[in-house]
Description:
This protein is α/β, with parallel strands linked by helices and 218 residues long. It has two domains: 4-15 and 86-216, Rossmann fold, CATH 3.40.50.1000; 17-84, DNA polymerase, domain 1 (Orthogonal Bundle). It has helices at 17-29, 37-41, 48-58, 65-81, 92-99, 113-122, 146-154, 169-177, 192-196, 211-216; strands spanning 4-7, 14-15, 87-88, 104-108, 131-133, 162-166, 181-185, 202-204. The strands form two sheets. Strands 5-4-1-6-7-8 form a six-stranded parallel β-sheet. Strands 2-3 form a two-stranded antiparallel sheet. The chain is globular, with a radius of gyration of 17 Å.
Amino acid sequence: xxxxxLFDWDGTLADTRKQIVISFQKALKEINLEVPTEYIERxxxxxxxxxxxxxxxAANRRxxxxxxxxxxxxxxxxxxxxxxxxxxxxxxxELLEALQGKVKVGLASMNNCPIIMHLLQINGLIDCFDTVLxxxxxxxxxxxxxxxxxxxxxxxxxxxxxxVLEDSLFGVQAAKAAxxxxxxxxxxxxxxxxxxxxxPDLIVKTLKDPxxxxxxxx
Length: 218
């Protein structure tokens, strides 16, 4: 049995894709930039700052950190405004409840703290986590394992005794780099075939799959 379970948020526990895309697009509109929806979707999980830097570079714009900060703040504000539209994936709440008292549970998200804490609060999930880490706690984005290693450390769990639930390629790569087991869910933008190439220990289509609890509590 594992001693700690680490969850990603966006695309894993909650369907935030539409709200994230809208928030990025509204922020970029203010500096007269537009990017395709898929471009944003496939970068969910690496953090807003890095995504905005990448977009500015691709547009041959100067990467001004003051502008990046303003874009992140605007994106966060819009996403919080849209928070009531966010839905948890089927089985998310039940899975979190089933783990209470059995293992340590952490949330490791590359989203910004105000957004995550607001979403946890309005969904009544704050008490489901023993620790919550967001992008502000790390200096390197996924696929770097920093956020998972720091979350495990906060939980006083060793990497080898930890399992990560993720929906993105970056997340699976980060979990494996951290020497943690990984359960990949196909609830994000990545296909089962794409996730399989990153060698997660288990792939499921939904958080309702009983194989998840069996794997964690074995």
